[in-house]
């Protein structure tokens, strides 16, 4: 089994190093690793954020463990050369359309949540975010209006096949959990969302055991703070899912805690924390590596079919937290390596 390691930019290398230590400690037979350049570091080294060598490793790999991309030095490059194109390109090139972002409170962290602890304590939800379409991948550009004004545009669209496959992913996830699926859209305004809602309802005919509800995204943002315990699985489009998952992370305690898997239906997957390269703390040892370590656990479970070591990683993270491991984002003083040490000790 081949695991691609793409640390990327900013805190990416710091957090992936800790996840790799945890994987090494498990001494799993038959796993090899290949490292690749992505993001701003790839641009600076070879002139492209997703070099062909990296894409080749990704295509051959069973799974990709990804840190983060993003570099303020690159923010004025032409868009196709920006670091973020690495993650967008991998999702598109490998057909990774189903982005699973679980948010569950570790009991010890309930008081780190931006919510009241008793509200935070109820959170156990999964955001199923579509990642191959939407306004992210439509035609975009800059033009000049007839009045001579600069105008930027990004076309938002979904076709029914794209909605159908992510709807199935949402229903299947709900079926394996508590049987509740909330589809989040903006059907009161957007045609894209009207089609989304129509197709989700059509697909629901195959899942009579799942209770389907619909919610507008603005209400969903509010409900996520008011009463997050009401949600089991949320299925939504690329942009709404991006925004709601960062919000969910703070309900859970920290953006440094949320892991993700992005799957293409053939077993191959990309695993990454939901956060970015955090340039404001890069190189300072302040990054919380737990989201990346938990992403490695998802990788073992979903792409390598190794549920037992995945459980062990998750139990070790829970024990490290119960034993008091806290990085600065969790109100503590431990650095990135010490957080890795705590997980290894618990393992
Ligand atoms: P960010 O997620 O990088 O950071 C937001 C805030 O959260 C910052 O204050 C940061 O210090 C903090 N934070 C993030 N991860 C943390 C961790 N593990 N431990 C402790 N604190 C953490 O978002 P941003 O600042 O909006 O974006 C920075 C760059 O990252 C941008 O270039 C953006 O495009 C990119 N980005 C990349 C990904 C990805 O690679 N998948 C995801 C999001 C953002
Ligand atoms: C994420 C990030 C990416 C996204 C960016 C960096 C392209 O915010 O993975 O959540 O918007 O999908
Ligand atoms: Mn995001």
UniProtKB/TrEMBL annotation:
Main localization, broad class: cytoplasm
Any matching Pfam family: Iso_dh
SUPFAM superfamilies: Isocitrate/Isopropylmalate dehydrogenase-like (SSF53659)
Binding site residues for NAD(+): 276-288
Note on how the cofactor is bound: Binds 1 Mg(2+) or Mn(2+) ion per subunit.
The protein's enzyme class: oxidoreductase
Keyword terms: Amino-acid biosynthesis, Branched-chain amino acid biosynthesis, Cytoplasm, Leucine biosynthesis, Magnesium, Manganese, Metal-binding, NAD, Oxidoreductase
SMART domains found in the cross-reference section: Iso_dh
Gene Ontology annotations for the cellular component aspect, listed alphabetically: cytosol
GO molecular function, one term: NAD binding
Recorded catalytic activity of this chain's protein: (2R,3S)-3-isopropylmalate + NAD(+) = 4-methyl-2-oxopentanoate + CO2 + NADH
Residues annotated for Mg(2+) binding in this entry: 218, 242, 246
Entry superkingdom: Bacteria
Site entry (Important for catalysis), positions: 136, 186
EC number: 1.1.1.85
Gene Ontology process terms (BP): L-leucine biosynthetic process
Pathway membership: Amino-acid biosynthesis; L-leucine biosynthesis; L-leucine from 3-methyl-2-oxobutanoate: step 3/4
Residues involved in substrate binding: 91, 101, 129, 218
Function noted in UniProt: Catalyzes the oxidation of 3-carboxy-2-hydroxy-4-methylpentanoate (3-isopropylmalate) to 3-carboxy-4-methyl-2-oxopentanoate. The product decarboxylates to 4-methyl-2 oxopentanoate.
Sequence similarity: Belongs to the isocitrate and isopropylmalate dehydrogenases family. LeuB type 1 subfamily.
HAMAP family for this protein: LeuB_type1
Name the UniProt record assigns to this protein: 3-isopropylmalate dehydrogenase
Gene coding for it: leuB
